[in-house]
Amino acid sequence: MQVGRRIRERRERAVGRRADTPMPLHESEAIILQSYPLGEADRLVSFLSRSSGRMRGVAKAAKRTKSKFGSTLERLSYIRIWYFERERRDLVSITQTELIESFLELFSDYESGAALALFSEISEVVLPEKEALDAPFRLLLLCARAVKATHKSEVPLAYFCLWTLKLAGWMPPLDSCVICGRALGEEQAFVAPSLHGLACSRCRPAGARLLPKESIALARRMTTQKLEQLVEVSAPPIAVREITSIALDWIEWQAEKRLISRKMWEQKI
Ligand SMILES: [Zn+2]
């Protein structure tokens, strides 16, 4: 025990001494989730690293007009990033970035901008810190690219929300009642903001609303088909909107957090 403690103490002292020594430089693909001004000249950046997961870091002097970071730190920018971690510090130091693909132009359109803001906020809220997950990374990029290519964001957003639930293990069953577990079959299904899933007519809580059959069918299709296939066929807009709204309710319920950009999205009409 004593030896173990001595070794541990020695190691702790060593770590203390090394507190400011830079760790090895990391390189990864990344997507910027948010970036905020920090002090006079720096930016605080939240990003999704493909090899290390969601992280936060500081980009020194990034607020200056002739910053070496240029527009790479804008929301949803797909970049290559170089950074190093420091012992005992939560924030990494971003030393260099290189733009792979920009989504900046989409923010000049209200609807696309609101959808992209939701993509980044949901990723920020749902994804665990420092855990490399390739599927959410690909989902984010896929949906942002779909908005860019089609200038339509309703279907990509609904798809993004459903798949976020699915990948997080938060998707309630779409074919049975979440309260009694009975298979819904051809029965009517109900939804309510207080409910994480679909309820049968017997279990529906007060104030629950009927979810049309075509909305349920579309949600099932969205969780099994590719986004390209869904964008090609025209899904009924009301059903798409309904699914987005329910999926956002479920994400908020699971994350125990209200999404700020949801309001922006819902005000678009
Ligand atoms: Zn039931």
Question: Briefly, what is this?
Answer:
This protein is 40% helix and 19% strand. The protein is of the alpha+beta class and 269 residues long.
Give an account of the 3D structure.
With 269 residues, the chain is an alpha+beta fold. The chain folds into 2 domains: 25-102, OB fold (Dihydrolipoamide Acetyltransferase, E2P); 108-266, Recombination protein O, C-terminal domain (de novo design (two linked rop proteins), Up-down Bundle). It is 40% helix and 19% strand. Strands 1-2-3-5-4 form a 5-stranded mixed β-barrel. It has a two-stranded antiparallel ribbon with strand order 6-7. β4 and β5 form a beta hairpin. α2 packs antiparallel against α3, α2 (110-126) runs antiparallel to α8 and α5 crosses α7. The structure holds zinc ion. Zinc ion is lined by residues 177, 179-180, 182, 199-200, 202-203.
* Contiguous uncertain segments of 5+ residues: 11-18
SSE pattern, N- to C-terminal: HEEEEEHHHEEHHHH
CATH classification, class level of the largest domain:
Mainly Alpha
How many whole angstroms does the radius of gyration measure?
22 Å
The CATH topology of the largest domain: de novo design (two linked rop proteins)
Say which CATH homologous superfamily of the largest domain is assigned: Recombination protein O, C-terminal domain
Class per helix and strand makeup: alpha+beta
Tally of helical segments: 8
Q: How many structural domains are formed by the residues? A: 2
N-to-C span? 67 Å
Nearest-integer average pLDDT: 89
Tertiary shape: elongated
Q: What CATH architecture of the largest domain would you give? A: Up-down Bundle
Share of helical residues: 25-40%
| Biggest pleated sheet | 5 strands, mixed, barrel
What ligands are attached or bound here?
zinc ion
Strand content: 15-25%
Q: In what order do the strands lie side by side in the largest sheet? A: 1-2-3-5-4
What is the number of strand segments?
7
